[in-house]
Specification:
Helix content: 55-70%
Oligomer: single chain
Strand content: under 5%
Number of helices: 11
Number of strands: 0
Largest sheet: none
Order of helices and strands: HHHHHHHHHHH
Structural class: mainly alpha
Length: 260
């Protein structure tokens, strides 16, 4: 004889998936397979820095762009973007040089230089994310969606290879892929793009940042030179890709600011 409890639970249990089959990722949009669940891999430190970098509030982006425009009331959208590019390069180059120079100071030394480099990498990603979103703002694009922001940051940091992943997803090159990515790319496609970019990022970018880290901790001040050159190279990659991602600047600003 089957008791009442068994009658209630047996049919319900029969319809339940096997352990691991119904686990959802944090965005609650994509199922994790049993293999995904069993083969656990912790997020890399750099992956964590990227996630943190792309959560900057849109209000902060708007405010910064408006300040640049207010200081240069006669500047066109193209000129404002150039000013943002110079500002971005100045920030990451200064940080890279400071970390490299720290190894040449006897009281600081190599150990502290390594610690500073962790902050340096965080600054690079945060500055790159803010810069890319500021360029989008000049083009009249605002996006709160974190996965879209993440894909934009990874694609610009990875250079031509990252851009190619996005272009392949939208069906061809020769388009302003950043605009498509931020405004109209379907969620399922976006997920695939982020997965491909993250894989490429982990494989390529860690090696790149690792080589720059070794260069920055060289003694006798040589690290300062390597840090400046490395930061400059990474920065130019981001700037070049942001121009391709959004295309030519608009002739007019999409919104008016109050001049004070």
């Amino acid at each position: 004889m089957v008791d009442d409890k068994q009658k209630l639970t047996a049919p319900e249990s029969a319809n339940q998936p096997a352990p691991g089959d119904a686990v959802l990722k944090p965005d609650h949009g994509v199922e994790v397979t049993p293999a995904d669940w069993v083969h656990y891999k912790p997020d890399s430190p750099l992956d964590h820095l990227v996630d943190k970098a792309v959560t900057i509030p849109s209000a902060s982006i708007h405010k910064h762009v408006d300040k640049v425009r207010a200081r240069n009331p006669d500047a066109s959208p193209a000129e404002v973007i150039k000013l943002l590019e110079k500002e971005y390069m100045r920030v990451i180059q200064t940080t890279g040089t400071a970390v490299g120079a720290a190894a040449a100071i006897p009281a600081v030394g190599t150990a502290a230089s390594v610690a500073l480099s962790t902050s340096d990498v965080a600054t690079f990603f945060a500055s790159s994310a803010a810069f890319s979103l500021a360029v989008a703002d000049v083009h009249g694009i605002e996006v709160q969606d974190v996965p879209r922001r993440r894909a934009l940051l990874l694609a610009t940091v990875l250079g031509d290879q990252g851009a190619q992943d996005v272009e392949n997803a939208i069906g061809g090159s020769g388009v302003a892929w950043g605009k498509v990515l931020l405004t109209s790319m379907p969620r399922t496609t976006l997920h695939k793009v982020n997965k491909a970019l993250t894989h490429r990022f982990i494989q390529k970018q860690i090696a790149k940042q690792g080589s720059l880290l070794l260069g920055r901790i060289l003694p006798f001040g040589v690290g300062a030179i390597v840090g400046w050159v490395g930061a400059r190279a990474l920065g130019h990659t981001v700037i070049a890709q942001s121009r391709v991602a959004f295309g030519a600047p608009p002739e007019r600003f999409p919104r008016v600011i109050e001049q004070k």
